[in-house]
Amino acid sequence: MLKINVVRNLIKVSALIVAGGVVFPPLTASADGHYDGVVVNILTRPGPVIAGRIVDRAEEFKEMTGAEIRVAEAPFAELFQKILTDWATGTNSIDVGVFASGWGIELVGGDLVENLDPYLAKDDKIDLDDIAPYFRDFNQKVSGSTYFITLDGDFQMLYYRTDVLAANGLEPPRTWEEYLDVASKIHGQDMNGDGEADYGSCIFKKRNAQSYFAIQSVAASRVQSMGTSEGIYFHHESMKPKINNEAWDKSFELYKATGEYGPPDELNQDIGDTRGLVVGGRCGLAIDWGDIGPLSIEEGSMIKDKIGAVIMPGSTEVLDPETGELVACDANTCPHAIDGINYAPFAAFGGWTAAINKGSGDKAKQAAYDFLSYMNQAAQSNVDVTMGWTGYNPYRNSQLNDTAAWVDAGFSQEAAENYLGAIKESLNHPNMASDFRIPGAQQYTGVVLDRELARYLAGEITVEQALENIEEAWEEITDDFGREEQAELYRLSLGITN
Questions:
Q1: What's the DSSP call for residue 230?
Q2: Chain mean position to CA 130
Q3: Average pLDDT of the segment spanning 295-321
């Protein structure tokens, strides 16, 4: 396994450590069980999303085994660095980190994560074959070994108001140009009956949040056309960024243009703000992860049985990686195209996954694994993914192929079939675009891409300047980690083994 130098990262986060460490809830008395007295400390994002359900399941696990599962929280922007620092310095106050799967490559490269293959070999309950191949093979593994346990399956889809589009004689958009056209025709209509004008498009665009995932969903179908192994970020051999070109240029412009039909304060809206508008019936079109489906049936929702989901819009033109120009889709340039449209659903974030600290004690590691297996198992996760507040989206075949649990949760049969059908179409697409899964993943996109995109959206710089800045910064990050090492890991992350 390639050894990654984590000292640079530790220096960059020293301010965070000075600002405050991780504080776990106090230890409480445990029930009798084979893990009586064993403590497992978990760090993840603030609840109730993600963290809340871990707390619930921890109480169940404690009653069954006696293990004390303590859950601490860190702001999204600080989460990875706190885990990295704790493990790399040998502090080891965190036994389990729950974070974006792509971030974990850096931890594995630093030899900080427990290899889970020996645990899986003795686990007859997790049922790996039921986990969808993308999450089982791309999210959980590095160089063929399993280091992560999936708790949530993430990629983005397009949501649309079925009633609003039908009333206007419109179909769900197939391309981003059609997205703008549909948004323009429904923008300003009252979509929830409150007498106020609503929005044709709702997309989260706040800086230092999750806007950088959305722009990648817009760009993916222009950048990648040859299948998942092509990738949307770099040339495989040289690690030269595929960012400063016509495909990303046009994607930035289209992304900004959607704001003409969105809320006036969209640049300050994160995913929670957008979801509130969608569930409140104020958005004709929106892009999001799988959460909108379960949220649509919760009490107070204005969109129950009024929301449809489809694969993310595509493009009729794609990048020529050699020239940096856009070329028309044909049988050679877009072998997976449908009716001349290239689709590339983006596995944004990849999903919340859990890693166990290699430096933790043996009892804590085994208890941690058993707890994560418990959460991942179908008996628990098939329920958790149907509840919008948990933040967990489907990742098991049984969650996608059987509508019973979804209907029991409150979906109509038609809505359940539509929602799961859109997920399966995206998840099984041969041109699905994979998120960053190399060391520095969070820096490449969560810092650099996010910063330059925000500056462009705010009118501080041109799109050309933004792309040049990203290219330069990405080159520096790659050189910092080691170009040859990064290239090798990048190819492995895309399933390229030669």
A1: G
A2: 20
A3: 97
